Amino acid sequence: MAGVSAAEYEQAVIKIGERLLVSIRVGATCFGPSPSDRIATVISVEHGALRQAYRLAPVFVAFNPAFRFGGDKGGRKFTIARWSADDANLDTVVQAISRLEPGWGGQRGIKGSPQRHPSRLSLQKVVGLVEKGFDPQKKDGDR
Question: By CB distance 3.0 to 4.6 Å, which of 81, 99, 101, 106 could disulfide with 111?
Fold first, then answer.
C-alpha cells in the first residue's frame, strides 16, 4: 500500500534522527561552509548527516573519521556529492584526487574515497580539490 510503512521502519527512522540531533548538540557532528561558501563540510559518523548537507550548499564534502571498512578495520572515509550537474564537475575532482590517492570513485553525482581502506587525505586537501572543480567562468548564483 502506498503511504504505509512498517512500525519498525518508522522507529528506525526516528532513531536515526534522534541520534543525529544528539550528535549535533554534543558537537560530534559538525557542519560548516568552505572558504568560498559554495561547499558545505560535514564531519560525522551519523548516517543522517549527509541528508542535511544538501541543505547547506550545492556541493558537500562529508568526512567520517570512524567509518567501518569491515572486520575491526576503521578509519577515515570521505563522500563528495552535488545537488545538480551544474554545481561541480565531480569526475574532474576525482581524477585529481585519484592522482594523490587511487581508489576514489562513484556515480556522477556522488563520489567517495576508497571502499576497502581508510583515506590518507586531510579534509582541507579534499575540500581544496573540490573547490577547483567549480567552473571558473560561472558566477556565484548561476546554476
Answer: 106
Query: Cβ contacts of residue 116 below 8 Å, gap of 6+?
Result: 69, 70, 103
- Beta partners for residue 58, in sequence order: none
Contact 56, 115 (CB under 8 A): no
Which residues pair with residue 75 across a beta bridge?
67
**Contact residues for 135 (Cβ-Cβ < 8 A; gap 6+):** 89
pLDDT bin (cut points 50, 70, 90) of residue 143 is very low
CA atoms within 13 A on the CB side of 55: 6
Is-contact 59 87, C-beta < 8 A?
yes
CATH entry 3.10.310 includes domain 29-131 = yes
Q: Give the span between the Cα atoms of 76 and 37, in whole angstroms.
A: 24
SS3 55: coil
